[in-house]
Each structure stands twice: as structure tokens, then as C-alpha cells.
Amino acid sequence: MVLEGIYTPLITPLHPDGAVDHDALAAVVEHLIAAGVHGLISGGSTGENYAQTVEERLEIARFVTRQTAGRLPVIIGTGAMRTPDSIALAVGAREMGADAILLGTPPYSVPTERENALNALAIDRAADMPIILYNYPGRMSVEMGREFLDRVGRSSNVIGIKESSGDINRVHLLARDYPHIQMSCGMDDQALEFFAWGARSWICAGSNFLPDEHVYLYETCVLQGDFAKGRRIMSAMMPLMRVLEQGGKFIQCVKHGTELAGLSAGPMRPPLKGLNKDEKRELQHVIRTLKTTIKAIREGN
Q1: pTM of this prediction?
Q2: With respect to CATH, is domain 5-299 assigned 3.20.20.70?
Q3: Which PROSITE patterns does this one have (predicted)?
Q4: What is the pLDDT of residue 232?
Q5: Residue 132 labeled ligand binder
Q6: Domain ranges of the chain
Q7: Catalytic residue among 7, 136, 162, 218
Q8: Of the listed 134, 136, 216, 218, which one is catalytic?
Q9: Nearest one of 175, 172, 83 to 127, comparing CA atoms
Q10: Known active-site residue 229
């Protein structure tokens, strides 16, 4: 499996009572396919997986897989505190015909690199399908370091890694020492640097509501190799990255951005609450300015 392009970790639209809004989810999937993203991810943290049961996550993943109907690759998130839960999600992903799984470190338990590797390999044995690792020590408190990568990287199923550490030295490490594991950008404000170091994909929650602009940066840098223009596009996107990555309300911003794009997203599940009026106004201004600036770049201004 080749990781190429923009992969959107889907939000989970909800009704006011917290139930999944399947009609709205179908609309999001169709909107993203029409906008030209290259793959969809169900069951990531952007989809509020931490507030869902394993059964709910599998039901949502099956719905996304059916709705997509083979038009794009579908990747299923398997992150969970309990290894049996991750295995159930991974086996379910294989049975529903998903293209790959996204495999992160179990949160809270703080495993050693050996323990983390053995956990990943247990999930690999159960699923036997393409795996994209997910390195996010800011949430998991554990990094997928050399010992982990040396053990897990021997599996032919491990085809990529979503790198979300924020440490640019990790980009250098992966590009130089683990070229057989495809590197995917998982830290939005470093997308340009990832592309410069050979990454050909970007897993980005902001593409839920700005798919065109994210695809444009990918095409400019990866397909055209025009990093001068890429810097201009990235510069226009940086205020949004600051709001998303540094405001402490990542999912709330992504869901409200989706609403601003004309799609229904609904509320968050507890413990999260929505944006206040000032935060909504700031996000709306940042998105409006971003779209105007990138439109001008497209037009050659």
C-alpha cells in the first residue's frame, strides 16, 4: 500500500443527544471524496474514539467503509488502552474490508519500548493487514523509538508511520534510517518540512473542512516540487495551525470548521464542550483569511 496524498481523519457528527448522525457522516464522506482527498480514516482521536465503545467504533467504521464503497482507501484506527480492544478493532477492520489500520501506543499505561513493540506485533498477528504506526508521545507519553521501530519494522505489514511528535529530528531519523517505513505528516505545522524530507502523505484533521487547500499544498510540494510556492501556501495556513495545535480545543475547532463548510458536525461528547462565541469568531476569521490568500496564490497573485 502506497501512502500518497491527503488522508482525512473523519470527525464523528453527532445529534444533540450524543447519538451518531449517520446522514451527516455520509455527507462528510461524500464531500471529501468530491473534494479530491486521497483516503479516509475512521476511529481516530479526531473522531472522538476515546468517548466511544469498541462496538460503536466498529459500527462507525463499517458505515464509513460501506459509504466509501472502494472509491478511496479506508484506514481504521485501533488505538485503545486494552490490547484485546485493539485486536477486536483490527480484526473487525480486516473483516469489513478496510485497507489498513492505524496503530498507536496504548495510552496511560506507559509501556517500555519492548512492551509497546510486543503489543503492536500481537495486533499485527491478529489482523495480518497493512499497518500505519502512530507516534504521538504528547498524548501517549511514550515514543516509538529505535528499539520499537527495529522490532516492529521487520513485519512486512508495517508500511508507514504517522509521525506526530513535533520533533523535527524524528523526521530526519525516519527519512534516513527507516526509509522502508513510509513517513506521513502527523504534525500539521510541519507539513512543509515533512514534504521536503520525502514524505508523500499528510494525515490532517483540517482537511475535514479545508480539503481543497490541503490537497493544493500536497500537489504543489510533492507532485510539482515547487517549494517556493509551497512556502507561500504554508505561510497562509500557519495561523490555522496555531489555532488547531496550540489552542487546546483541537476537535472543537475541527468540528466548528466543518459546520462553517456547510456540513453538520453536532456537539462533542463529554468531557469536551464546544467553542465559545469569541473562539468561533476567531476561527471563522482565520479560515476566511486563509481561503482568500490561497485563492490569490492559485490565481498567480
Answers
A1: 0.97
A2: yes
A3: DHDPS_1
A4: 98
A5: no
A6: 5-299
A7: 162
A8: 134
A9: 83
A10: no
